[in-house]
Amino acid sequence: MAANHFHTPLDRFIAGADKALRVMAGVASASRPNPAAHAADAALTEAEQRHAAGLMRVNHVGEVMAQALYNSQARFARSDEIRRQFEHASREEEDHLAWTAQRLGELGSQISVLNPLFYAGAYALGTVAAVLGDARSLGFVVETERQVEKHLTSHLDKLPPQDAKSRAIVEQMRVDEVAHGAAAQEMGAEAAPLPARLAMTAMGKLMTGTAYYI
Fold this sequence. Notes:
Structural class: mainly alpha
């Protein structure tokens, strides 16, 4: 455990680059059981299956972006405590990546080909947040999770009612996102600047409008 304190910036860069490549390629392993494991399979029409896949692909890309944000914020965090919090949240978000990727496969679909672009954009935004200081960086987390919670809630309304597997995954994701936002708030988050909030909203709209299809 103590060896972690001796990681150099180069070590962290190499580890971050390796993780980024795995995230963009859709290679993720979950540390928790898939919440859909015990949900009943349901018959879906071709249109319902395609729609559910589009929504889950959007959710997967959202988690790719979350990984980018947390990885950049952890790398440039000024406090070890804040860095550990970002790393903890990132590990939970990796569960989401694995779950959504698995569900996409079950729905006969695939992850988005735009993952590298969205990862790069979110990484840049997270770097800006980190440079503004830990309090503002935490504020980005609060705002991000607020937007993601809203987005996931809307997906629970849009998914086919009988698609219990997708719904179980989205519901657990929503629970986790709320917890991450609350943890960041408790650690002293300062509100993200308005331009940053607008940029995040715009990026989110671009992502949801494209990842649904590709």
